[in-house]
Structure formats: structure tokens, C-alpha cells
Amino acid sequence: MTGFAIVASGVGVKKGGKTILDGLDFTVKAGTITGLIGPSGSGKTTLMRSIVGVQATSSGDLRVLEQKAGSKKLRRSIGYVTQSPAVYTDLTVLQNLLYFGNLVRANHKKIDHVIEQVQLVDQRDQLVESLSGGQKARVSLAIALVGDPELFVLDEPTVGLDPVLRNELWGMFKDLAKDGKTLLISSHVMDEAERCKNLLLLRDGKLLWNDSRELLLEHTRKDTVGDAFIAMIKKGDE
Prior knowledge:
Blueprint: E1 4-15, E2 18-29, E3 33-37, H1 44-52, E4 59-64, E5 67-68, E6 78-81, H2 93-103, H3 108-117, H4 133-146, E7 151-155, H5 163-178, E8 182-187, H6 190-193, E9 198-203, E10 206-212, H7 213-220, H8 225-237
Helix pairs in contact: 2-4, 3-4, 7-8
């Protein structure tokens, strides 16, 4: 490994003649939590879809775990959690995990461990449609976990969740990083960015920053990521 889970060089995406991503150059270090931060419409979801290989890029080179994005070799190496829970609501928590676990050849011991990991032991035999929004989000995360991927791509995983559950999920994310997993987590909420060691700041399809949070605050002479983001925008508009 090169030490980078993702390497992008001049990556662009155009849809219907409109530029969604404009020549992005960045790296994501392996074994870290990187926040992909930007307002709605900045291109975050398009970038994540490009990384997991479900969105074709129009230009540039995008490498994921040393493979070209979209390579068949990456199918079991990436866990992708979309904004809307991608689960079967007419099945129980356990049935969902058995189904998706079978696709990645996960055994029952692994499935039981994942259910404990996302704290859904008491809900394992409940239909997903009867769960709360936060519980459904945890089922989606469990499905990503069951394949034991190297890279997690999480699109707004904590949106709409209460503060307690958000803290629990971030604790889980940190544990995954400690185990050597790489996490790319998108959010439009600036206080989420304060939890990330590294940041990608995206606005209107262009990258404003790709480095540590600490260096961003030092570079802009600001105390919060929100203020630093605004400072970077102003600098770009000069």
C-alpha cells in the first residue's frame, strides 16, 4: 500500500453539460477518518458515488485502494452507506444481515458480532419498517460492516439523528479507524467536521482544502472549521 486509500488527479464529472466536479486533486490517508464537508449541492454525493464506482468520471484519474475506481476487485473492499437507508423494510434486522452477509460470505458469528457492534441486539428480530430513523441508519451501517471492508464511504450518516446517537456512531467510527479502516464521511454540518482529523472542503464542485483540520485552523487563523471554511471561500473569491 502507498499509505493512501484514495488518490485523485484531475477528477471531473459532467452531467448534461453541467460541471459537477471540477478537476479535483486530493488524497485520503489509509486508516484515518476524513470529513468531506460542504453545503448541499457542492458535489459531495457525486464524488462519493465516483469513489465507489457507481458514477463514471468525465476526466482525470481516480484510484481507490490502488485500483481504478469501479474495478470489480473493489466490490468487497468498500462499504458504502447512502443517505437513505438501503435496507429491506419488510425483513427483520437479522434477515437483512443474513441476506447481505450471504453475498459477501459472512458467517453467523460475524453477523452476530455486527449486530452487537451497532447495538441492535434487542431489535434483531424486528421488522426494519418498525424501527426508528436512527435504528434504520444503524442497520445500513451494519450491512456495510458485515463484509469487513477496508474503506467505508458514508454519505451524511448522522443527519437527522439525536445528539446521543450521533456520539455513539462517532465512537464506532473512531474504533473502526483504530482497527486500520479508512472512513470518508460526508456532512454539511460544520460541527461534524470538528470530529475529523483530516478534511476535504468542497464548494461548487471545487476543492478548497485537503489536509488536516489542525492545519486548516492554523492556516486561516480561525478557531472553528465553520469560520475557516468561510475564510477559504472568501480567499477563493478574491
